[in-house]
């Protein structure tokens, strides 16, 4: 498709979000200039190579290369386009938890200087996540000062908008093409109308819902949505732990029913891992920090953050329960071997920023031998994981090794097809955090595989019962070895198969 007659677009910052945006606009026939201070990214895009990994990104760049340019030159990017999207980092300040505007302001200065030298109306859209008050405050001030123009709708002014994207890495292109709604904070009707038209054309949906408002309401909406979603995820995790401690309770059953209530809804209501990634944790903390800075009560957002951090501990404790059982299989005392399948924060993404799987690996390594595999995120994970975490070269290498416990930590559907080695001679416990596997079928076909269900009272009770039996057994065995007991061992309770397995192992050990 050749470039259409619509506005020419520049995208400042061609990283994880900016590159897909360039590709998506190009795919809809717009001429797009991507700009970055990272020369490598620019050179790659100039050659038609995606600067970052994201599903479908390379395909779109290859197909619509004719509509894409890349540069490090602000003058070129701004003077040759009508509208500029700014998608540069806004890292969280570790002291205040507020997002820093430093990169955005540098960009505004550079854009403003070009606009000053060009005699044309230009529109600037902030896509980066910013703290409420930023767009109408410091961002407006810097853009006005550097351009010598006012923000407004006249040809002699600059249109300014705040329009963040609601996307998940690993499905950025899909999410940009299929938005639930588009949020626009606008300086005036002219830029709001222009964006509404542009995003309608960008979407694959026939009808796109728009929410147009002033800057501060849009800024609040962005972090409020993420804070609400993190609360919902954490609620599901809290319920999941509760169910684990009640016989016959099952969090999935309860969640599906709860989610059927139209006031609640099923999305993000699943007991699994903690939330992570570059947005959820920091948006939630920024929301809490903002509330506190205004002397408002931030208890809910703070509790969500604390409970989210606790999820790794909860999983480590389940692994410890299993480790007790695994001692039966050990001739010599050795660390229980734990494998992690999935290290990125989302499937189909190489991004490990605030990844719950990496965080879990770093906690597990204190008590266990930890090996991990991820198809995309291994090198990024190696940079943030404890040096004691080792990495497998493939799923098969990980799963067919002599693991005691396998944790499925990303909801990647490819894990459903894992092949389990039929020749195993010791039990493999799988903690299927996302309930991807068919428990009945796999356990039937693999005598030595047991799937532990998070949020399931009977599953965890089974571990507790067998663990208690093993503890008793160990005490009796020690007594026996000290000559205080008869050579008779009772394996009481526990899940049938596991109980008989224990009994067999003890018999082997004693004969
Ligand atoms: N990644 C996400 O999932 C996500 C989701 C929603 C919102 N956001 C927000 O989008 C913004 C960008 O996030 P990202 O993940 O794409 O970041 P990123 O780090 O992947 O990409 C940002 C790019 O901006 C470039 N850059 C920095 N300063 C620049 C400048 N002065 N001029 C030109 N380019 C410059 C960097 O070199 C980098 O390539 C952030 O505010 C983030 O909070 C990100």
Automatic annotation (TrEMBL):
Substrate binds at residues 222, 276. InterPro entries: 6-PGluconate_DH-like_C_sf, NAD(P)-bd_dom_sf, UDP-Glc/GDP-Man, UDP-Glc/GDP-Man_DH_C, UDP-Glc/GDP-Man_DH_C_sf, UDP-Glc/GDP-Man_DH_dimer, UDP-Glc/GDP-Man_DH_N, UDPglc_DH_bac. It catalyses: UDP-alpha-D-glucose + 2 NAD(+) + H2O = UDP-alpha-D-glucuronate + 2 NADH + 3 H(+). Signal peptide: none annotated. The active site is at residue 279. Pfam families: UDPG_MGDP_dh (PF00984), UDPG_MGDP_dh_C (PF03720), UDPG_MGDP_dh_N (PF03721). GO terms for molecular function: NAD binding; UDP-glucose 6-dehydrogenase activity. The keyword NAD applies. It is an enzyme of class 1 (oxidoreductase). Residues 339-439 form the UDP-glucose/GDP-mannose dehydrogenase C-terminal domain. SUPFAM superfamilies: 6-phosphogluconate dehydrogenase C-terminal domain-like, NAD(P)-binding Rossmann-fold domains, UDP-glucose/GDP-mannose dehydrogenase C-terminal domain. It comes from the Eukaryota. Keywords: NAD, Oxidoreductase. Its EC number is 1.1.1.22. One of its GO terms (biological process) is UDP-glucuronate biosynthetic process. NAD(+) binds at residues 36, 90, 129. Pathway: Nucleotide-sugar biosynthesis; UDP-alpha-D-glucuronate biosynthesis; UDP-alpha-D-glucuronate from UDP-alpha-D-glucose: step 1/1. The keyword Oxidoreductase applies. PANTHER family: UDP-GLUCOSE 6-DEHYDROGENASE TUAD. Belongs to the UDP-glucose/GDP-mannose dehydrogenase family. Involved in the biosynthesis of glycosaminoglycans; hyaluronan, chondroitin sulfate, and heparan sulfate. This is UDP-glucose 6-dehydrogenase.
